[in-house]
Amino acid sequence: MSWEQLSERQPRVVKTLTNSVKKxxxxxxxxxxxxHGTGKMDMALQIAKTFLCRETTSVEPCGVCKDxxxxxxxxxxxxxxxxxxxxxxxxxxxxxxxxxxxYHGMESDKKVYIVEHADRMTVQAANSxxxxxxxxxxxxxxxxxxxxxxxxxxxxxxxxQVVSFSPLPPEQLMKSLQEEDISLPMAAMAxxxxxxxxxxxxxxxxxxxxQARDKVIQLTEELKTRPSQVFxxxxxxxxxxxxxxxxxxxxxxxxxxxxxxxxxxxxxxxxHLVFVDQRQALEQQALHTSQKRISEKMLAILTxxxxxxxxxxxxxxxxxxxxRLREG
Length: 328
Hints:
This protein is an alpha/beta fold. Helix content is about 55%, strand content about 10%. The protein has 16 helices and five strands.
């Protein structure tokens, strides 16, 4: 990955960061916030390479030295990546970083720390991280990556430079996917779930996602035509298929997209549809509801996604959601 390649996805972000490199004004801590697949990790690793590369004389890292190759392979001793253990980033993980803070870098005096899903830090972990942010050194850079910046402590945000990543326009991604011989319905779905082309291609090539899409369409049809039977279907066809938490989260995302499409039909904006091959079914459903009811159902799905993140029992969560979706 080069700065030029990253600029195709995030031109504003690249301009900001490369200008900081040129002026030797990199911040000691950054919060990279933006949707899934917008390139936050790629950008953090690119700065790490520029920061640690000892061969480059410009903004672009050389890409071939020991430092660059180690970062590319994920085993540079002075680049530390922290990821959630289970559902959260725990205080012991941050304490482990703090121990590293006290040592000189193994290859140089420079260090880079990347905290992925920083919004999942426990309160104790987040408060512990403040110790680093309150005592910055010129030889250390921290990157906090998040899709939910509002969940970070204000004290962390105030001590970091917040950089917002824009989603890749869905139309651009859809066109790119169709050039890879992906069907329009699958390309539209993938572009609605991620802004990252490689991940979108993976989604399109997994039979599971095609089946998941069919399950969501089936559920919305049963909610309309057989509401009294939907709980049986929920048990037999839904929960038995979406067994893992991340699978159910993806299903709820697709369900939310369906109701967004209903809203687009109500607003006479069919050009924005994601379920492009289901326009007739969407138009039929839209005849029997209102924009207010659609908005209420979308809110119910968003609430279910939040509760899923809080480890609510999946069956109870879906039963309560279906009750809300049947109303009206």
